[in-house]
Specification:
The protein is mostly helical and 138 residues long. Helix content is 73%, strand content 0%. α1 crosses α4 (88-113).
Length: 138
């Protein structure tokens, strides 16, 4: 995925992610967070922004969901690896909590700054890029 973001929009996303990450730090060692979690977070954040500001049509939603499922599979595999050794139940709890928290943080931030904010519009455009992303399928 090649996304062009302004410095401000990058800071907005990083602020949202850091707030959420600090709240779930107990559930995950964030000092050694694999890059795949950043991609997972970006999918969750853009989905929340799109829901709040420009709900996608059914076809776009289905394609985004399929790409998000691919990312989620990689996250699950990483968490089950010898390095993290998380059980499926722990993974389900971690990902559900992470998704709920990020969704809440994004929704609250958008409620304050609005959908017309340039940074929010950048994040909603990312959703469209994720819809059109063609991940390698194995």
């Amino acid at each position: 995925m090649n996304f062009q973001m302004t410095r401000t929009s990058t800071l907005l996303v990083l602020t949202i992610v850091s707030i959420a990450s600090s709240n779930i730090a107990a559930a995950q060692d964030t000092s050694a967070k694999p890059y795949i979690f950043d991609i997972y977070d970006q999918f969750v954040i853009s989905n929340a922004a799109a829901k709040a500001c420009s709900p996608p049509d059914a076809q776009s939603k289905a394609r985004h969901d399929a790409n998000f499922a691919t990312v989620t599979t990689h996250v699950r595999n990483t968490l089950m690896s010898d390095r993290y050794k998380k059980s499926p139940a722990e993974i389900n709890q971690l990902l559900a909590g992470r998704r709920a928290l990020l969704d809440k943080e994004v929704s609250e931030k958008i409620a304050k700054i609005g959908c017309n904010n340039a940074d929010v519009q950048t994040i909603t455009r990312r959703y469209n890029a994720q819809v059109n992303w063609q991940p390698p399928r194995s």
